[in-house]
Amino acid sequence: MGIIEAKKLTDEDLVFKIVQSNDTHLFAVLYDRYAKVVYNRCYSFSKNKEEAQDLTHDVFVRLFVKLRTFKGKSKFSTWLYSFTYNFCVNYVQRNVEKKKEKVTVVTDNIKEKSPIDEIDDATLLELKSDKLAKALEMIDPQEKMILLMKYQDDMSIQEIQEVLGLGASAVKMRIKRAKEKVVKICQEM
């Protein structure tokens, strides 16, 4: 199959052709379709152009190996979105673990819980962007991921459900908890 014909294929058909033939030229077509999207996701985690480029490269190298695990139960773009987020979350968690080895955090004094009222979206969006960026770096990567999906990528609850493989109530609860943590951290700054 030529590149011109490959460009006319749907994502799903292209993926199945790549898996069948192991053709790197066909994979290049897929790369061209999604490199910018994957780069933007990686950049949202790293905030560093070089690191985002490295992550993007790593995502596509791993994607080529893992492409056969795509079964076509969802749109390829949804599957790739999840694949990229999981890759980035794992990357961030590895880096957090490395930092924890170097820094000791005192958490014993933070046992008391103060009730935080329901955090509405306006409260979250009113936070100064520099404080918000710092707070996002301080929460768990999984929590950061779900907030970025909802507010940066403007995904619906249903789209987040598909990507994460969770029910609607679980997605809503995770978003609520992540917002509460971000607001609490910002208030303490």
Task: Give a concise summary.
75% of the residues lie in helices and 0% in strands.
Characterise the protein shown here:
It is a single chain. About 8% of the residues have low confidence. This protein has 189 residues and is mainly α. The radius of gyration is 19 Å and the shape is elongated. Helix 2 packs across helix 3, helix 7 packs across helix 10 and helix 8 packs across helix 10. It is built from ten helices and no strands. It has two domains: 104 residues, RNA polymerase sigma factor, region 2, helix turn helix motif (Rna Polymerase Sigma Factor, Chain: A, Orthogonal Bundle), CATH 1.10.1740; 83 residues, Winged helix-like DNA-binding domain superfamily/Winged helix DNA-binding domain (Arc Repressor Mutant, subunit A, Orthogonal Bundle), CATH 1.10.10.
Q: What's the SSE blueprint?
A:
Elements: H1 3-8, H2 11-21, H3 24-46, H4 49-66, H5 76-102, H6 121-126, H7 129-138, H8 141-152, H9 157-164, H10 168-188
Report the structural category: mainly alpha
> C-alpha Rg, in Å?
19 Å
Report the major sheet.
none
Residue share in helix: over 70%
Report the CATH superfamily of the largest domain: RNA polymerase sigma factor, region 2, helix turn helix motif
The second-level CATH architecture of the largest domain is: Orthogonal Bundle
Q: Any idea of the CATH topology of the largest domain?
A: Rna Polymerase Sigma Factor, Chain: A
Q: Look at the structure and give the CATH class of the largest domain.
A: Mainly Alpha
Shape: elongated
How big a fraction of the residues is strand? Answer: under 5%
How many beta-strand segments? Answer: 0
> Can you tell me the number of structural domains?
2
Mean pLDDT: 79
- The H-and-E topology, N to C, reads as HHHHHHHHHH
What separation lies between the terminal Cα atoms?
A: 58 Å
In DSSP terms (H or I, runs of 4 or more residues), the helix count works out at 10
User: Unreliable runs, pLDDT <50, ≥5 residues?
Assistant: 102-117
